[in-house]
From TrEMBL:
This is Uncharacterized protein. It comes from Roseiarcus fermentans. InterPro entries: WapI. It comes from the Bacteria.
Length: 151
């Protein structure tokens, strides 16, 4: 059986069963905060026979930056949550701290939010956070946030 993700190459972000490939900005010439910061991505989550893809302009760079910051805080405190809380309903990821450095990762992903819902749960630990932060930072270096939220 062929790997359905192989055609995308190495993901820009990989965390347990979640992979995200960034294909570029939705509006590369836009300089304003809202239009200029949408990323065209392919997101995939899979486990135990399930393999779900979501594609399109579903991640805003501000959401990725907030997840990076919250993940750094989660690593420092080993308590609380870090969320990739996307405005678009196709993808969301929540990292919840447990005891002894254990983290529960919950992924909600769908190619069609009007007729489907797919949810995955993974057990990870604090050692997953530094690579996550680096991957988010790498994406933000290639695609810096344009403009300002306030205008």
């Amino acid at each position: 059986m062929t790997d359905p993700t192989a055609k995308f190459g190495t993901p820009d972000l990989k965390l347990e069963g979640l992979q995200i490939w960034v294909h570029g900005r939705q509006f590369p010439d836009a300089a304003d905060y809202w239009d200029g910061n949408w990323l065209r991505v392919t997101a995939h989550c899979g486990r135990s026979g399930a393999s779900i893809f979501a594609t399109g302009s579903i991640i805003h760079l501000s959401e990725l930056d907030r997840w990076r910051v919250e993940s750094e805080e989660l690593l420092k405190k080993l308590s609380g949550e870090a969320k990739l809380a996307c405005i678009e309903p196709a993808l969301s990821v929540t990292l919840k701290a447990g005891s002894l450095g254990h983290i529960t990762m919950e992924v909600s992903i769908t190619p069609d939010h009007l007729s489907q819902r797919h949810w995955f749960q993974f057990g990870i630990d604090q050692s997953y956070l530094p690579p996550l932060v680096r991957q988010c930072q790498s994406i933000l270096e290639v695609y810096p946030i344009k403009g300002s939220r306030d205008g």
